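In the laboratory, one determines a bound structure by crystallizing the protein with its ligand and collecting diffraction data. In a computational setting the workflow is compressed into a single prediction: the sequence and the ligand go in, and a structural description comes out. We illustrate the idea with DQA.
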Amino acid sequence: MTRILILQGPNLNRLGTREPAQYGRKTLGEIHEEILRMGQEEGFSPVFFQSNHEGALIDRIHQAADEGIAGIVANLGAYTHTSIAIRDAILSVNLPVVEVHLSNVYRREPFRTKSLISDIAAGVIGGLGPVVYRLGILGLLAFLEQKKQDPTAH
Ligand code: DQA
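The predicted complex, in structure-token form:
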């Protein structure tokens, strides 16, 4: 079965109580339960990883490539805007990444409009709340299917 890494960056472990006006009231656990249910319906197997540490996220990206993960749906939190090292980690593995954000970063502080990931991502989804994970996964699955038919697709 297709395995998808759901990669969650810094402070996302605080969802539920963290800035609810911005991020809603669902906890990360609740979001992951929904993804698990979706996996049973859509026939994929999610692997979850959250860390507040840049290096741990990088290690998990490398490991994903080595263990046959098909692709990554990543909310890298604030590291989206700052981490050349995470960008390089994504470039070091041959895995499609869909970048997601719960909030609409374009409606917020200007520094959030810069992403070091978007231009190397298969797709970017943001601003709709927790449904971005569902949309991101569907997009990634469609991308993987397309790639099977045309390996040059990107
Ligand atoms: C976020 C947006 C980032 O700018 C912020 O640092 C986060 C969460 C989002 O999901 O909207 O931690 O990635």
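The radius of gyration is 15 Å. Keep in mind that any predicted model is a hypothesis to be tested, not a measurement.
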